[in-house]
Design a protein that fits this description.
Elements: H1 16-36, H2 40-61, H3 68-76, H4 84-102, H5 110-120, E1 136-139, E2 147-151, H6 158-174, H7 180-194, H8 201-215, H9 226-232, H10 234-245, H11 256-278, H12 286-296, H13 304-310, H14 316-328, E3 332-335, E4 342-345
Helix pairs in contact: 1-11, 2-3, 2-4, 2-9, 2-12, 3-4, 4-5, 4-8, 5-8, 6-7, 7-8, 7-11, 10-11
């Protein structure tokens, strides 16, 4: 709530560089409908891929992982969870599905935040409950004592802080007419500084990001995983969070480092959507278009596992058969055999690319 108090956002002078980001995103939002009018097959494949990557990345950031062969059945199928990690994976999937299907009907309020937490932390004893004990953001350092990065809002003050945050966010949008992306960035930063739950704050913050963006018409997260992009820029994420949280309790923090990073992640997502939408014209079909896009984005040599990770909605044997086809057409080369084989895409070679 500290980013909203005393009309901070209303009086916030947006620097030129941040304005460029906002303008880029307004333009991308305008093109969004063009992309989503494309082939239903490619859109279905993109949605499945984004869902799998979002569930995997958001949990992996928090140290929750499952075997690769269990990920797709848990996210897209009807597999039953075998342990706590798999419960978290399935819970996050349910939370994302709720946002995908009912975003416009969900009011950003304390009850909703507790509901999202209960979904993605179903296996914990305090799922859906605000913290009962004060907590801190700790940096674990190898061969060194843990470092306290930030002292969060106290457990006693948390319910009131969350209530205030939700109210002032809605007021900023409805009454002060703050640019939505600026207000959403401030909302997520303040949520992370309050840290209202004992565990799972990062996951809920990413669900909150997705929901708030959808409510303002920025739907790129349906097709490109924002959570994956956040994970890929994890070091920068923690760095700007530390910068922008300094003096937050006094209301004298600098929102800008966090806001620019937040906007850059969304712009990267739109850039990736545009590139992948361009692959729709590939004659091999929706799955092949996605795999080809992943192959072409590899900077040099790659393994089959690299493409499998980039395309979680596509089976290993299917990827292997496409690589074999590319090799036969002179569009790819291969060194070695089996899982350790190194592939390289031969740009502008062959006749089917």
């Amino acid at each position: 709530m500290m980013s909203f108090r005393n009309h901070r956002l209303r009086d916030f002078a947006v620097p030129m560089g941040t304005n460029w980001l906002l303008n880029d995103l307004a333009e991308a939002k305008g093109k969004q409908e063009l992309y989503t009018r494309q082939s239903p097959q490619i859109l279905k494949a993109l949605r499945e891929m984004a869902l799998v990557q979002s569930v995997e990345s958001s949990n992996r950031i928090e140290g929750v992982t499952v075997a690769q062969d269990r990920l797709r059945p848990l996210v897209l199928g009807n597999a039953r969870p075998k342990d706590r990690s798999e419960q978290d994976i399935m819970g996050y999937r349910r939370a994302v599905n709720l946002i995908h299907s009912k975003a416009d009907a969900l009011l950003i309020a304390p009850d909703l935040l507790r509901r999202l937490h209960k979904l993605c932390q179903e296996g914990s004893g305090d799922a859906g409950q605000f913290k009962k004990v004060d907590n801190e953001v700790i940096e674990l350092r190898p061969a060194a004592a843990p470092l306290v990065r930030f002292k969060c809002v106290s457990a006693k003050a948390t319910p009131a802080a969350v209530e205030e945050l939700c109210l002032v966010y809605r007021h900023a949008i409805d009454q002060d007419h703050i640019p939505p992306l600026v207000a959403v960035g401030a909302l997520v930063l303040d949520f992370l500084c309050i840290h209202p739950f004992r565990d799972g704050n990062g996951r809920v913050s990413r669900l909150l990001t997705l929901l708030a963006l959808y409510q303002h018409g920025y739907e790129v997260g349906r097709y490109i995983s924002l959570e994956r992009l956040i994970e890929e820029a994890k070091e920068d994420y923690y760095h700007v969070l530390q910068q922008s949280s300094q003096r937050w309790h006094e209301g004298k923090h600098d929102l800008l480092p966090w806001l620019n990073h937040f906007l850059s992640i969304i712009r990267r997502a739109y850039g990736e959507l545009e590139r992948r939408a361009g692959e729709i014209k590939a004659p091999r079909g929706a799955k092949a278009a996605l795999v080809l896009a992943a192959i072409r984005e590899q900077p040099g040599e790659f393994r089959l596992a690299d493409i499998e990770q980039a395309c979680p909605g596509v089976g290993r044997e299917w990827i292997r058969s496409l690589l074999t086809e590319l090799k036969a057409a002179g569009e790819a080369t291969c060194k070695g055999r089996g899982p350790a084989a190194r592939w390289r895409y031969q740009e502008n070679k062959g006749t089917n690319s």
